[in-house]
Amino acid sequence: MNFGAGIVTIILSLICALVLSVFHLPDWAPPWLSWLRPSWLVLVLFFLVMELPQHFGMVRAWILGLVLDVLLGEPLGVNAFCLAALTYVTWSNYERLRMYTVLQQAVVIFAMVMCIELFKNLIWVQFLDAKFHLTFLWVASASALAWPLVYILLSRSRSSRF
After folding, report:
1. CA 102 to CA 36: how far, in whole Å?
2. Where are the domains of the chain?
3. pLDDT tens digit string along 119-144?
4. Helix, strand, or coil here: 127?
């Protein structure tokens, strides 16, 4: 168990999640395809809090959320609050979540991402005069479908690095 390699793996996975969060689709892609973009940082943070609760708390999640707010150009603190809330819920239930199968965890991911995206949608409607739309259900569905892949990739890197 090499602790330095584990830290590097954690940092690289978080950087990859941030890059995938801001990665734009090509111009030739249909616009509806952007609705199917998973919430990558939520998935990686959920895994890290569930598997390594001693390393990830609400402060680190808050900082990652602020970084995501800056990268996406969204109102400062919205993603930070959402990721801190996700971390709190995951951290307080991580022992139970570890016992769930990957499919049951995907259902939990769907519910959490749906709540996060609904909250962000309501913030946009209330303060930025946007229209309410149900695309947050597509983001939650895509995140739940991407969860098994993220879980397998991070589990394999965890078993070889942490």
Report:
1. 20
2. 3-21+37-52+94-159
3. 999 998 888 778 888 888 999 999 99
4. helix
